[in-house]
Amino acid sequence: MGVFTHESQETSVIPPARLFKAFVLDSDNLIPKVLPQAIKSTEIIEGNGGPGTIKKITFGEASKYKYSRHRIDALDPENCTYSFSVIEGDVLTDIENVSTETKFVASPDGGTIMKSTTKYQTKGDFQLKEEQVQAAIEKATGLFKAVEAYLLANPDLYK
């Protein structure tokens, strides 16, 4: 079993608290609305939305996967931090689990720098390829930019 860690960051003109509310706190409702081809639905299987909550994400037609289950590991709206683990689903073929820690921090221009650290724990001697990680990053970036565009088009939401 191996562990591969990847760090990334995205920037936005949207302030951190507003972006966190939309991208994290209301993601179950917003993301299927903004990108239904990527994520068809999200439902809470167990818990109240806080740490320990298990969510089932059903992917949309544009995805080659059907579903995944995520566990919320930490959620701190005051400090705009969030972490979760992918614990089940057809996305985990050669991967035991994927855990992501995300922090939304203010940028000098009043926008956001979203910093993420993702750890991939692989099964057996499976070696994660850079192109697999890049594909996941591109999907996450697309999701982030779609939420940002939605907030720019709807300036009165999530204030």
From TrEMBL:
InterPro entries: Bet_v_I/MLP (IPR000916), Bet_v_I_allergen (IPR024949), Plant_def-hormone_signal (IPR050279), START-like_dom_sf (IPR023393). GO terms for molecular function: abscisic acid binding; protein phosphatase inhibitor activity; signaling receptor activity. GO terms for biological process: abscisic acid-activated signaling pathway; defense response. Keywords: Pathogenesis-related protein, Plant defense. One of its GO terms (cellular component) is nucleus. Residues 4-154 form the Bet v I/Major latex protein domain. SMART domains: Bet_v_1. It comes from the Eukaryota. SUPFAM superfamilies: Bet v1-like. Belongs to the BetVI family. This is Cas s 1 pollen allergen. The lineage of its organism: Eukaryota, Viridiplantae, Streptophyta, Embryophyta, Tracheophyta.
